[in-house]
Amino acid sequence: MRTAPLDPTPEADRLPSLAPQGELPVQAVLRRLEQEFAQVLDAASEASPQAEGAADPVYVTRPFLPPFEEFEPLLRQIWQTRILTNGGPFHQELEARLSDHLGVPQVALFNNATTALIMALRALDLTGEVITTPYSFVATSHALLWSGLTPVFVDIDPETLNLDPARIEAAITPRTSAILPVHCYGQPCDVEAIADIAARHGLKVIYDAAHAFGVRHGGHSVLNHGDLSVLSFHATKVFNTFEGGAIVCADPAMKDRIDKLKNFGHDGETSVPDVGLNGKMSELNAALGLVQLRHIGTALASRQAIDAAYREGLRGIPGIRCLDFAGEGAANYAYFPILVGPDYPIGRDALYDAFKRDGIHPRRYFHPLISDHPMYRTLPSAQRKDLPVAAQAADRVLCLPIYPDLDPATVARIVRRIARP
Ligand SMILES: Cc1ncc(COP(=O)(O)O)c(C=O)c1O
Description:
The protein has 421 residues and is an alpha/beta fold. The protein has 2 domains: 24-65 and 294-419, Alpha-Beta Complex (Aspartate Aminotransferase, domain 1), CATH 3.90.1150; 68-291, 3-Layer(aba) Sandwich (Aspartate Aminotransferase, domain 2). The protein has 11 helices and 14 strands. The strands form 4 sheets. A 7-stranded mixed beta sheet has the order 2-10-9-6-5-3-4, sandwiched between helices. A hairpin with a 2-residue loop joins β7 (216-217) and β8 (220-221). The radius of gyration is 22 Å and the shape is globular. Bound molecules: pyridoxal-5'-phosphate. Pyridoxal-5'-phosphate (PLP) binds at residues 112-114, 136-137, 139-140, 182, 208, 210-211, 232, 234, 245.
């Protein structure tokens, strides 16, 4: 059960409909982009990377923003109502819209995914040790440390680069209370195997789904797996609200607890039974999210075309491996990681430096491993020798630029640089 959208303004003052509008059919956009990419890759296949003149720097991502004119009326509404935060109308409407769009029962919005992770751990009353992946952004494990929990690192699967279920059971001790896997790059984890292990050992499962907006697996949203899933709407993510995040859950009573936790633990005006935080999303961020949602279809179609162009352009280059989508359903093309293997003429870092000299800035997500950082490296589970797959991935990975308005010529330039380092 979701909270009904609440609109304190009279009907006459209501600002333009928030229903999806003006969006070209996604398939048509995709076809057009694929043709454009094919032409540019073809024409450029003989050009030399060195022959290209200076261009604007290209970063691993460029946040997607809707036309400002679409956001402006919502800003005016905020100025008119003076409702800025505390679960206002845009907040409530975005929760409802995201729940429909993603196909999940309950969405609790947050100011970012890190706070959401900490509150998700609190909502499940976890104690002791939590099994997690070393191959992620530090926020995953930092949330455990902030919660007084001990991360236990387990190696990853070489195909998906997600937590390897075959290694989880050996890491379970009487102190283990949960598993915190990450759908890294939006690749679905082996959710069935993880659910089976959790059920057999009475463990909770929280997915760090920061990368997994819109990912579907086995006929429905990957966010429906586990006890809780946490999304990030940071500027770098597929769907952004500048900063933002959310917890997805199945149970309305759990959503109620989470809503209290993100409001300092308040239960009514004078009662504070829980140690919460301020995790609320503001009306400004929620309003932006509503407008962003109108464009998510075309944004994903652009990413899909870029992903396809990279795969086509990089096919057959010795030593370069692209990750295949591990899910049975829709990917979100959030990242384009390649693994630079020993058959490639130069090492990953040399390629990274060559790109930087060209004004292109890929990122080595996730190097170093979380377990290599000073606050983790003395943990018994943090030794690199016990995490060989993760260590190799961290040494080889390079995430190439991918974002909706990345132009075909730049994709061709990036492919040429890899083909002729
Ligand atoms: C895997 C993962 N978890 C958590 C986070 C934290 O998200 P936020 O920046 O919304 O706090 C990120 C952010 O990039 C991430 O990549």
